């Protein structure tokens, strides 16, 4: 079922939880992620990478994910990730995206805010939620190089409140030592900085990109510190590519067996998604996810 990302994330934040968002390069990944969310009765976000959104087939992928989301038994949002171009965002909204990261993080803060404000103007009538990014998250979206957090890219808490007022952003992605792809050495999130950003962000939920490679303790701590959405890509890709590597030879020699290979990648994606969903809903914590958005058990027939 379709869901409003802002409302969903706000409810999870109040419960000390967060919604995981997974990059889906195709329908197979989205189906596996949504199946995991349905099994746990938890909401989830399907991310469309900028490389996918800007490809000629981008609108068809978005429409396909929209269909999977609408058909699901749990709240599912389809979000355009790191969209830097207004035309691509308009196209994505027309194709069925219900949230977008209007990414002006490469621009000076005033230009970033103006870009987000323009996107909000045409996104609002369509009911599309707009996330912004202030500061930057090093690393690439689609290839997992090893990166260390760049001090210069971290979000300056002093800029947060003026930026949110000027941009009207509904969610805020920030740089607190998080990186896309692999972490060089041990990840070291700057918790004091995150708390300072949280204090300046008012009721705007925070988003943590680059969640792959973070320890469960860090992920739980981020949710407790007011992060309402965590973005995951590399961990999912790695698990699916590992599954291909493990199964490809047997599948080839078993008469070009595509079904077994597809089953193996789907179950790898399912496993990663279940793990992250469980951790971010904090289901094993003593508070046992009080107030976490969880869909009701399906009615028993007979
Ligand atoms: P990772 O690839 O590090 O998980 O980052 C994903 C991400 O932040 C997508 O926006």
Automatic annotation (TrEMBL):
Coiled coil spans: none
Keyword Zinc tagged: yes
SUPFAM superfamilies (alphabetical): Aldolase
UniProt: Zn(2+) 1 binding residues: 82, 180, 209
Binding site for Zn(2+) 2: 103, 133
Enzyme class: lyase
Cofactor: Zn(2+)
Active-site annotation: 81
UniProt entry tagged with the keyword Metal-binding: yes
Domain of life: Bacteria
Keywords: Lyase, Metal-binding, Zinc
GO CC terms of this entry: cytosol
EC number: 4.1.2.40
GO BP field: carbohydrate metabolic process
Binding sites annotated in the UniProt record for dihydroxyacetone phosphate: 181, 210-212, 231-234
Designated name of the protein: Tagatose 1,6-diphosphate aldolase GatY/KbaY
